[in-house]
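We treat protein structure as text, and this decision shapes the records that our systems exchange. Because each token names a local backbone shape, the row as a whole describes the fold. For reference, a complete record is included directly beneath this paragraph.
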Amino acid sequence: EFLFILAQVHFKLTDSASLEELLKNTITPEVELVISSYLAMTYIEQGYLPRAKKIFEQIVENNSASPFVYLSKAYLSAMKNDLPAALLSIDNVLFTTPNFVEAQLFQAQIFYSEGPMSRAIESCEAYLSQYENDNKVRMFYTEALMSDGQFDMAEKQVDLLLKINDKNDLLNQVKAQARF
């Protein structure tokens, strides 16, 4: 359990070097699967798509019943521009593991780029119900709300972020856009 949390922290920090080091010290196949998944998702955040693809392919070959296998299938489908298949994999994993935040976030990202925006918003809300202090996702949620024309809701989200840093130029600009 501790290694899972540590891997998740390194993922949120986009710290692939620490995840690579953590992967060297894995004890069980389950732990290796989880850390490998976070490493691949971190590689995507860093723009290392071929590295991520290779890891996702290895995870899928594992063929276990882990939610991370289904999420890996979703990422591989998305990398092939097969977004319906990616969303189907995500729906399948969320059916069996409804609080799987990594799947909720990936689902939100797909819907944000492809629509409908209301589904991106729902996925962000599901994620934020579990990680309400994830300000990066809250900002993403705010952008989705703005894109959907929900300016009052977007302004409320910006206000939450401004409580942390009221001098942030980008947040103040978004607040102004939400108001007008």
About this structure: The mean pLDDT is 90.
